[in-house]
Amino acid sequence: MPRSSKNSSPNGGPVTLAMVAARAGVSMQTVSNAINSPDMLRPETLERVRRAIDEMGYRPSRAAQTLRSGSSKLIGYGIQPTPPGTAGAVMDRFLHALSDAADEAGYRILLFASPPGGPSLEGYEELLAQHEVDGFVLSGTERGDPRQSWLAKRGVPFIGFGRMWSGRPLGDWVDVDGACGTDAAVEHLVALGHRRIAFLGWERGSSGAGDDRAEGWLRAMRRHGLPTRGRRGQSIVNDIEAARAAAKPLIDGGATAVVAASDVLALGCYQTLRERGLAPGRDVAVVGFDDSPTAELLSPGLSSVAQPLEEVGRECVRLLLARIAAPDSPPERLLLEPSLIVRDSAGAPLPDRA
């Protein structure tokens, strides 16, 4: 008789606990113990059961596990659409890192659609009503974000990828030190001989992360006694065309280097330079932020500040699971250091044009 395919019984139905028990020659309780309390079994019995589970492709019922443990092993994550003209690869990398870390911990990420236009409660209420999730990961945290107080009031564990920028921050978070990244970019440019270093970011107060990255540029410029007046360009949105317009006064004002708050803004700066017959890296140095896949593919390659997204994903899962296990413990906040990746757009000393 032909052997049944993995994940299905001979009659085509799902593999059951009883089938695994029969294959291993043990009781159903022993199989259950092998899954939920392996330390209760002798090593040889545990190995025999696990071999039967693997051979038959048995997957325990999530509903049954939830009833036994009170945990669904599900983490909710609201995913927003990526607007045209922007780069969504950074959040894609974060989501992949988050999923890997959750898998290693025995959890799954449950995605749901969040509307564009900033943080909102849409989707969170519905998900909690329809599914048993153990907690949430929040991204895109901004001032006035309603999700944090709403979840905290209901006792739902959550972790933020990004600081809670409100005056009374709630909950745990993991973030990347944007100010440290742009500070390092200025230090690198100063070492290359640049003194007229501009910053291309977003409107003041429109983004906590944007203001943080601007602060690092300002801090480093002041440390070196370099002028900042007229050196800050503001793009209304994270969009290549808007960045192109915002970069014009910086280039026309004589900047020899531009530090951008994102790789998308840096792309807009590339366009402005080429419209004026200038070459990024040769005539004006450019440094982006995020180290998106595009950065390496550009010509010349874009120097950029890289976020440690794999570490962010691991720490988000670690802190969320710690919050689930100890709901009343003090909040933990973790600020990770990014790294500057130097490519041809900011790899050579400033030419002597005297």
Automatic annotation (TrEMBL):
Signal peptide: none annotated. Residues 15-69 form the HTH lacI-type domain. It holds the Pfam family Peripla_BP_3. InterPro entries: HTH_LacI, LacI/GalR-like_sensor, Lambda_DNA-bd_dom_sf, Peripla_BP_I. One of its GO terms (molecular function) is DNA binding. It comes from the Bacteria. The keyword Transport does not apply. Keywords: DNA-binding, Transcription, Transcription regulation. PANTHER family: HTH-TYPE TRANSCRIPTIONAL REGULATOR GALS, LACI-RELATED TRANSCRIPTIONAL REPRESSOR. This is DNA-binding LacI/PurR family transcriptional regulator. It comes from Streptomyces africanus.
